[in-house]
Design goal:
Helices cover about 25% and strands about 30% of the residues. By secondary structure, it is of the alpha+beta class. A hairpin with a 2-residue loop joins β1 and β2. The structure holds pyridoxal-5'-phosphate (PLP).
């Protein structure tokens, strides 16, 4: 089911700049027990993304109302919200003023086995590199061709996620997730100032780590650093935390820090 600018619909005009240029932003949100999880974090990132792209942001109250409308009666669901710069003429020049368009869709919760959360998942290293562009880093813009190419690298069910590196072989993220490393009792995650998405679940994990007295840093990490890790895990708004049990040829176990963070998040309604 889709709402476009608040009305039930399934089509957007061909001149929409989201379609023409990927000129817009999106959020993928979890609904649990009829409530949209982490809505303030999602709306804050979306608003910041609009500011960075220089387009008017839809009023957060309007977005919240529409999200709540689609969450009604849902035990578990996934919502996808896109905000595009709306209609434009041919050519890149942004329309002045722009009239953003809202597209909001509801989907079934993915049928992942519980073992992804308890035992962990297998992750391959993707060949598709991420380009470096601080102007687009951190925000969840609609240009996702790098992730599309990376996800097309494997089709078998042996791998649940792919790890992506930038052109200088620094680890950045998964195709649909952020990555964390536990080393010597410290929590580390790649910076997202050159590329990558500043995930809402990443922010929540960093907050919980601080609350638990666990040192947490944003650093440059290469594959050797991951190979030397005590624990590795992935995060996103839907999965919460998935431990990594296999990275390429490397085997790992869900460790105590991952468990403690999963438990802390479960208290906030983030559980499988
Ligand atoms: C490329 C990428 N990085 C990171 C994330 C995690 O972001 P969030 O925690 O906001 O779901 C996603 C989620 O879809 C993603 O697509």
């Amino acid at each position: 089911m889709w709402l476009i600018d608040g009305r039930r619909a399934r089509a957007v005009p061909v001149g929409d700049r989201g379609l023409q240029y990927g000129d817009g932003l999106f959020e993928t949100l979890a609904v649990v027990d009829r409530r949209v999880r982490l809505m303030p974090l999602h709306l804050a990132r979306l608003t910041e993304g609009c500011r960075r792209l220089g387009m008017p942001a839809p009023p957060p109250d309007l977005l919240a109302g529409e999200l709540e409308r689609l969450a009604r009666g849902q035990a578990r669901a996934v919502l996808k919200l896109l905000v595009t710069r709306g209609e434009g003429q041919r050519g890149y020049a942004p329309p002045q003023p722009a009239q953003p368009r809202r597209l909001l869709g509801r989907f079934a919760w993915p049928p992942w086995p519980r073992s992804h959360y308890t035992r962990g998942v297998a992750v391959r290293v993707c060949e598709t590199p991420l380009g470096l562009n601080p102007a687009l880093a951190g925000i969840k813009h609609l240009n996702r061709l790098e992730q599309v190419l990376a996800r097309a690298e494997w089709r078998d069910g042996r791998w649940q996620e792919g790890l992506m590196l930038d052109g200088e072989r620094r680890v950045v993220c998964g195709t649909m997730s952020n990555v964390f490393v536990v080393r010597e009792g410290r929590l580390e995650t790649p910076s997202v100032s050159r590329c990558g998405v500043a995930g809402v679940m990443r922010a929540l994990v960093q907050r919980e780590a601080t609350r638990m007295g666990l040192a947490s840093r944003e650093v440059d990490l290469d594959l050797d650093a991951l190979a030397a890790a005590d624990e590795l895990f992935l995060t996103n708004a839907i999965i919460g935390i998935w431990p990594i049990r296999r990275l390429g040829e490397l085997s790992l176990r869900r460790g105590p820090v991952t468990r403690a963070l999963q438990a802390a998040l479960a208290l906030q309604g983030v559980s499988p």
